[in-house]
Amino acid sequence: MSRARRALAPSPDTPVPPAVEADLRVDLGPLPNLVGYAMRRTQVAVFADFIATLSELGLRPAQFSALLLIDRNPGRKQSEIAEALGIQRPNFVAMMDEMDRRGLTRRLTSETDRRSYVLELTEAGRTLLERAVELVSEHEARITRDLSRDEVDLLLGLLARIAN
Amino acid sequence: MSRARRALAPSPDTPVPPAVEADLRVDLGPLPNLVGYAMRRTQVAVFADFIATLSELGLRPAQFSALLLIDRNPGRKQSEIAEALGIQRPNFVAMMDEMDRRGLTRRLTSETDRRSYVLELTEAGRTLLERAVELVSEHEARITRDLSRDEVDLLLGLLARIAN
DNA sequence: TATTGTTATACTCTATAACTATA
DNA sequence: TATAGTTATAGAGTATAACAATA
Fold first, then answer.
1. What is the pLDDT of residues B142-158, one digit of tens each?
2. Does some domain include residue A134?
């Protein structure tokens, strides 16, 4: 009998759809009105496109952002790059191993602290990153194609004010 | 030498911060201006709060949305609920097993098709869902506390226009 | 003592192939 | 022949404890 009480969102109370369609679509209830749910669903779709975009270069999202940060932050330690990306240090090791093996990055033993590595891109790494940046730029244009520049800025601003 | 070319975002060209701080923060480059990156970072933070919110009921996010859909869609098959949630059918089985075991849901063999199950909530399931809906409502208010009602609607609208 | 990179490990989420029983 | 639920399995991503080398 009783549906769980609507403690959520001032329901827009969508009018009951015509009988034919009524049985086809599953009622998502308040889910579409939840910021968390909407953001997750959208993010999953965007991420899928992002992964597909980079896959032609054999890069995964975390690798792309790692290359970007290494390029922009010469002299930084492995642990600093990892932390900035929100990646646990242990999990960053295998990622660096693979990128080293592919000849995209190099780990130089620091001259001031022999415990740590200084990361840098190889020439191949820089070339690949440039191509990746182009592809990501296209991806960005693709996912925001229905939004104006102002709307994109608005979205970025709103996202920055969530969950802080 | 050459940083990877800025094919991305009309950089707001943040003025170089004072020398003291310059070394502390890792330069994220164009990442913060990428909708995908911003959305992922925000979503991770929101999801962490969501998981913590439901953990006191022993529910995980997918279980919450499953309970919600079962409650709202009496007579639906297991596979229909799973698909509406974007969960692979095989992965939904263990979830239903656990919720059945906890006495939150029941699987009734369909009278019209003996291959399929009709899902329903038990009284305990409905009670737990009601409490969960309250907690999620508080979570929603918490993550959007810096936004007006109009801004939340604006955000939902913008998200809906991404990656479709 | 504390930190850096590392190894080992475990847990969750997700994805696919293949089985069974029904249709 | 196709579909619903299931099993088994594999791959990401993520998290923590603990060790060796160094500070």
1. 999 999 999 999 999 99
2. yes
d(CA A34, CA A55): 31
pLDDT digit string (tens) for B82-127? 999 999 999 999 999 999 999 999 999 999 999 999 999 999 999 9
Enumerate the H helices of A27-88 as residue ranges: 35-55, 61-72, 78-84
CATH number at residue A64: 1.10.10.10
- Domain that includes residue B140, residue range: 31-153
- The distance (Å) linking the CA of A122 with the C1' of D15 is 31
B29 vs A1, A23, A51, B96, B138, CA distance in Å? Answer: 54, 49, 20, 44, 35
In a domain, A84, yes or no: yes
- Report the distance from CA of residue B91 to the C1' of nucleotide C13 in Å, as an integer: 9
Would you say the pTM of this structure is higher than 0.85? yes
Q: What single letter denotes the amino acid at residue B2?
A: S
Rounded distance, CA A36 to CA A41, Å? 9
* Touching A: B residues 139-158, CB under 8 Å: 139-140, 143-144, 146-147, 151-152, 154-156, 158
Decide if B159 is inside a domain.
no
Total domains in the fold of chain B: 1
- Concatenate the DSSP letters of all residues of B83-106 into one string: HHTT--HHHHHHHHHHHHHTTSEE
Does residue A158 lie in a domain region? no
